[in-house]
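Reading a protein record of the kind used here takes only a little practice. Think of the row as the fold of the chain written in a discrete alphabet. A record is reproduced here so that you can trace the correspondence yourselves:
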Amino acid sequence: MKALVYEKYAENNDFESILQLKEVPDPVPKSNEVLFRVKAAALNYDDIWGMRGKPLAVPLPHISGTDAAGEVIAVGEDVKSIKVGDRVVSHGNMSCRVCSRCTSGREFDCKKRIIWGFQTGPLWGGYCEIAHLPEINVLKIPDSISYEEAAATSMTLLTSWHMLVGRAKIKPGQIVLVMGGSSGVGIFGIQIAKLYGCTVIATASPEKLDQLKELGADYAVDHRKEDWHKEVFKISKELAKEKGEAPGIDVIFEHIGGSHFNKELTLLKYGATMVTTGATTGYDVPADLRQIFFKGINILGSTQGTRAELEEGFYWMGQGKIKVIIDSIFTFENAVDAHNKMLNGKGLVGKIILKPE
């Protein structure tokens, strides 16, 4: 089969120098595995980390790809819930399933947890014609969802759902600030908050603000302005007057980090919550501790989520309550252009999809 392979790490983000479309052996499913023909796969930022070899040195030779969807062509003898012909999508969070953390519903904290297509290998990821995964790591796709939509959803929907529902436990009527609303996780963050009856303020660069409104955000703010947080607080004051409450934000959906973090802290109400996963603009952030302890703020970390949470998200997608935004589609042959577009980020809204042909 054909697969996107690299055998060394890229210097200075020169992905073209390492990424090759090569013939590799077809996989043979183990007794607990499902084999599926990949119809679509989605890019994630860990693909870039992998090609850099930082922050983790991934196994070489390497096939990236954590989110892949396709049609099942073979199953192992012990597989019970999946059959040939089923339409499936990957659940890339691979854990042992038997430790105390896994069995208590915290599979994302498993000491043996690895991310398929990032930490797995050699030559084990989704950017190939035929992929294989344990039965527990695939989900059936609702009939109303395309392969492209499913691939664009898996990791980002799971991450967003776990942040807001699993960790922050959002409630109807809350004011939720979604930072980076045009990103993969941000797009779902907006829609999940609206699904739960929240008022949503979302941020993005100026050319993307109208798209945030189309996704359901009640307000859209340009976070590239130096005083963007003052605009958010002004909106919260207007909302507070209507309800007779104190101004501020109830829940902040954070994955940007960098210089925004301290400004975000100032926006939170007493007893409010910030839930964070990732730091695309920098992880070494200043924090005014007074904002945290005086106001009794909850700062929650969040990583991935559970298979059950992903199933919940796909249920609501199947009901048409959560939409997928696909920015662009590339073939494997044009994978370098796809990765460069993701790295650049200019004008990017939604997910980038790769297809075998």
User: Anything to note?
Assistant: DSSP finds eleven helices and 17 strands in the chain. Residues 228-243 form the longest helix (16 residues). The longest strand covers residues 33-42. The chain has a mean pLDDT of 94.
